[in-house]
């Protein structure tokens, strides 16, 4: 299919003159392997290729293009299959699928082309793949439960840097031994890394943005004392190493309409840095927590709640956002990745929920047109000669290749083909189908106009860190919870227990996301009440969605325990206090939570902003699990507690606890995780 550019003649003229200076954005990450040769210090061009050209910017990614072998190969991670795949560019055929660690998330080609290094999030390790033998040559063990994610090699000196999301830090590794040489604390949820060609700065994208001041109330604030709040990109000086600046991506204040909306940038991807090092673009979603019946008198709707955006950062001395050029990608919910062609003329942005890739003029912030990709595009790579674009479709288990050779001359892009990246799918067919439904908003049954998927608020089955105003839906202020570990139908769902089965999400699909639904209108009319007639067994698609949610049956390990996985001394004291103080009465059982028989509980945190339950009386809150408390950035049903200690102190029963007791209890709660 031929896709044509839809831009004004003036913009075309600018493009033809090539007046845009933007960035290269392939993965330049790499890692050391024990008993494996250190990567040579050389340059990698856009797409992570070996090149003799001058050094280029690098960014963490789940896909890289390797030009060294013949006409080239593409490498991509398969996070659900615990593998990486290699695709021959000339034939668009799968060469190999190579097992690595658990839940691989990013990979990078060493500058000499000899190795591909893969971060394994759940295994807390790095697999080093020999590119000639197509086999793992070594494994680097990282700190327990550290959740490694993004990784890059400095274009200047070849130093490998890795983001350890659970620890809130980035670390520089030794290229030969894999030992941690230096670490920098950067705060919660660092996922992606980017570096300009000079290697003088390291940009760290905070995946989940910090709560806004007042986000747990009816009045979230975009500024405090004249200081902007919003999404955050941390700037690190690699030589020090130390944090030197936090770039704030401001809360967008464009009036809500069918074409734009307000909101805080969230789910930040890797910054794509311009070849000249003067600017960068950060893809993300934008969450409109300023809107809601309680907050501004307007109910949440499908097109202003969550929107895909790309934010421009001015580098150099400024290190600040150029908010005027922020791109609002209409009819899409999440910008998951970005990459530039080598000339910097075009910026490509993966739009995850709408199965598309936007082509943007970075000089003006004008979205020119879109390419049809596959299901849940999450990674992009451009060949070093700028002739091909490769898109990694996460839930589609595929890579789609595009021919860019005529893009500048005639604004035409030809799809070259699609390649399956998985030989044998690990997920059961029904679970995979459910996961595809979970991430998709392009299917009109699921959502209207490509905006809201389940993953919009629950990427990876987790939570987005936001407190939403659901007053218009008969509820109140509600903090997004993680879905991981919530498998089974033995307990109510949501803070107010307003669902009793996963199939009840049919209501949100229809009423919030604007979809036509996964069951017939007649069946939904009979089962509209989420606590009434069961919806299970009525729709195969709803049952598949439920099967995926039920597959999220485990919690993640807490990184706050001792290196051997045992409780610290303070947490061990807190464990004894947890029982003696009666905490285990409510936070009981294997999940450290309430159950279907305990009902809703008022611990003293209900307030007018807590609203209702299904439009009626709210007697209390469902007792949440404590197994994922360690990963939170806000606590309680409305996110009004900033820390675990604040949440404990908010209980009516906490009056007899002194500061030392609170510290002990907090240490224990933060270390429960998937153990104990």
What do you see in this structure?
The chain is of the alpha+beta class and 676 residues long. The chain contains 10 helices and 38 strands. The strands form 10 sheets. Strands 23, 24, 25, 26, 27 and 28 form a 6-stranded antiparallel β-sheet that branches. It is globular.
Number of strands: 38
Which segments are poorly predicted (pLDDT under 50) over 5 or more consecutive residues? 1-51
Q: How many H/I helices? A: 10
Average pLDDT, rounded to a whole number, is 90
* Gross morphology: globular
Primary descriptors:
12% helix, 38 strands, alpha+beta, five-stranded antiparallel sheet, globular, disordered N terminus, 676 residues, six-stranded antiparallel sheet
In brief, what are we looking at here?
With 676 residues, the protein is α+β, with helices and mostly antiparallel strands. Helices cover 12% and strands 29% of the residues. It is built from ten helices and 38 strands.
List the helices and strands and how they pair.
Blueprint: E1 3-4, H1 9-17, E2 43-45, E3 49-51, E4 58-59, E5 63-66, E6 73-78, E7 83-88, E8 93-99, E9 104-109, E10 115-120, E11 125-130, E12 135-141, E13 148-153, E14 160-164, E15 169-173, E16 180-185, E17 190-195, E18 202-206, E19 223-224, E20 227-228, E21 230-237, E22 242-250, E23 264-266, E24 272-273, E25 279-287, E26 306-314, E27 320-321, E28 327-329, E29 335-340, E30 347-351, E31 356-361, E32 366-372, E33 377-382, E34 388-393, E35 398-403, H2 407-410, E36 412-420, H3 429-439, E37 467-469, E38 477-479, H4 505-511, H5 521-526, H6 540-551, H7 569-580, H8 583-586, H9 644-649, H10 659-669
């Amino acid at each position: 299919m031929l896709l044509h550019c839809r831009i004004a003649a003036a913009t075309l003229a600018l493009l033809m003159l090539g007046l845009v200076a933007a960035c290269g954005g392939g993965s330049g990450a790499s890692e050391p392997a024990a008993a494996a040769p250190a990567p040579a210090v050389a340059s990698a061009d856009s797409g992570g290729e070996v090149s003799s050209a001058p050094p280029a910017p690098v960014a963490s990614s789940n896909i890289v293009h390797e030009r060294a072998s013949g006409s080239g190969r593409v490498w991509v991670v398969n996070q659900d299959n615990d593998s990486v795949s290699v695709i021959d560019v000339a034939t668009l055929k799968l060469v190999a699928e190579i097992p690595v660690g658990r839940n691989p998330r990013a990979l990078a080609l060493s500058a000499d082309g000899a190795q591909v290094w893969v971060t394994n999030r759940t295994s807390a390790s790095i697999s080093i793949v020999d590119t000639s033998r197509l086999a793992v040559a070594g494994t680097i063990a990282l700190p327990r439960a550290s959740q490694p994610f993004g990784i890059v090699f400095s274009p200047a000196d070849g130093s490998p840097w890795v983001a350890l999301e659970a620890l809130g830090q980035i670390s520089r590794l030794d290229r030969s031994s894999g030992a941690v040489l230096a670490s920098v604390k950067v705060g919660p949820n660092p996922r992606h890394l980017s570096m300009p060609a000079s290697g003088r700065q390291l940009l760290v994208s905070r995946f989940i943005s910090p709560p806004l001041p007042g986000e747990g109330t009816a009045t979230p604030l975009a500024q405090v004392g004249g200081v902007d709040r919003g999404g955050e990109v941390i700037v690190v000086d690699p030589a020090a190493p130390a944090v030197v600046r936090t770039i704030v991506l401001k809360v967008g204040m464009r009036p809500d309409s069918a074409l734009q909306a307000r909101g805080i940038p969230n789910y930040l991807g890797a910054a794509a840095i311009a070849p000249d090092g003067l600017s960068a673009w950060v893809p993300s979603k934008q969450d409109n927590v300023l809107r809601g019946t309680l907050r501004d008198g307007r109910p949440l709707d499908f097109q202003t709640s969550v929107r895909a955006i790309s934010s421009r950062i001015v580098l150099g001395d400024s290190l600040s956002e150029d908010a005027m050029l922020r791109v609002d990608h209409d009819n899409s919910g999440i910008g998951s990745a970005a990459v530039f062609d080598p000339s910097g003329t075009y910026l490509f942005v993966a739009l995850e929920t709408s199965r598309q890739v936007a082509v943007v003029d970075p000089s003006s912030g004008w979205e020119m047109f879109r390419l049809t990709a596959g299901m849940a595009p999450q990674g992009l790579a451009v060949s070093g000669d700028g002739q091909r674009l490769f898109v990694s479709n996460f839930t589609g288990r595929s890579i789609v290749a595009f021919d860019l050779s005529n893009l500048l001359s005639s604004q035409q892009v030809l799809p070259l083909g699609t390649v399956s990246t998985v030989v044998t799918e690990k997920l059961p067919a029904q679970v995979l189908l459910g996961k595809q439904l979970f991430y998709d908003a392009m299917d009109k049954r699921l959502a209207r106009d490509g905006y809201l998927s389940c993953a919009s608020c629950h990427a990876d089955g987790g939570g987005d860190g936001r407190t939403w105003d659901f007053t218009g839906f008969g509820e109140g202020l509600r903090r997004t919870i993680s879905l991981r570990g919530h498998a089974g139908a033995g307990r109510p769902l949501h803070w107010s227990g307003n669902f009793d089965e996963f199939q009840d999400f049919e209501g949100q699909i229809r009423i919030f996301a604007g979809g036509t639904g996964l069951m017939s209108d007649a069946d939904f009319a009979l089962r509209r009440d989420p606590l009434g007639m069961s919806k299970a067994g009525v729709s195969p698609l709803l049952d598949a969605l439920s099967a995926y949610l039920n597959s999220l049956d485990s919690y993640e390990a807490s990184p706050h325990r001792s290196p051997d996985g045992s409780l610290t001394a303070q947490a061990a004291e807190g464990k004894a206090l947890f029982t003696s103080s009666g905490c285990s009465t409510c936070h009981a059982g294997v999940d450290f939570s309430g159950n279907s028989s305990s009902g809703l509980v008022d611990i003293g945190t209900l307030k007018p902003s807590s609203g209702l339950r299904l439009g009626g009386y709210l007697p209390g809150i469902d007792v949440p699990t404590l197994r994922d408390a360690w990963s939170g950035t806000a606590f309680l049903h409305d996110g009004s507690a900033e820390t675990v200690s604040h949440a404990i102190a908010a209980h009516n029963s906490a009056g007899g606890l002194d500061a030392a007791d609170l510290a002990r209890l907090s240490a224990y709660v933060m270390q429960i995780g998937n153990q104990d």
